[in-house]
Amino acid sequence: MSSNIKLTYFDFKGRGEPIRVAFAYGDVLYVDNRIQYKDWPSVKATTPLGQLPILEVDGKVYTQGFAILRYAGKKAGLYPSDELEALRVDEALQVIEESFNAKIGQSMGIQDAEEKKAFRSKLVTEVLPPYAAKLDEYCDGGYFGNSISIADIAMNEIIVWIKSGMLEDIPADFFDAYPNLTQMYKNVTEDSKLKSYFENRK
């Protein structure tokens, strides 16, 4: 069966992965168009803003990762209908973007090894803990809302990334100090609708 939805992103997790996870949760049929980084220069010229991810729905193209994630969340039943609960989910997403996504992303652009090490050391000891503490406070029930949402999925991908040990000078056990985030990670990774996806994803 064909789909009228096509997600285009690189062939790795990054900003496209929470969207893929949301679609998987809701059994949303879509085309997972993964491009190789070597092909990016030619693909870039075809995108509206020269960036990924992009989403095509019925031939129309949409940009911005969190906007696409919200769309996926609504399709999959992962975005609250209650206005205040949705506000909390959006707030958590914005904090995640301004802290872990932006700051770690900034460090990845540093070429000098010693400079990068010093920058990440400050992230771990000074910059990220206040954000992590606030996010931990927000998900005191094991989720950012009353049940699993796109904010939990986005945060889970950050935790998985850091726990992998792939980020040099950022300890894999960074989140061990945050019990609510740790519980949220467990809730998401063990969710019956996602377990198979996580076990088999690339």
UniProtKB/TrEMBL annotation:
Record PROSITE patterns: GST_CTER (PS50405), GST_NTER (PS50404)
Listed GO biological process terms: glutathione metabolic process
Family annotation (Gene3D superfamilies): 1.20.1050.10, Glutaredoxin (3.40.30.10)
Transmembrane segments: none
Superkingdom to which the source organism belongs: Eukaryota
Pfam families: GST_C_3, GST_N
GO molecular function, one term: glutathione transferase activity
Domain GST N-terminal: 3-80
Residues covered by the GST C-terminal domain: 82-202
Stored InterPro entries: Glutathione-S-Trfase_C-like, Glutathione-S-Trfase_C_sf, Glutathione_S-Trfase, Glutathione_S-Trfase_N, GST_C, GST_superfamily, Thioredoxin-like_sf
Protein name per Swiss-Prot or TrEMBL: Glutathione S-transferase
Species, as recorded: Sphaeroforma arctica JP610
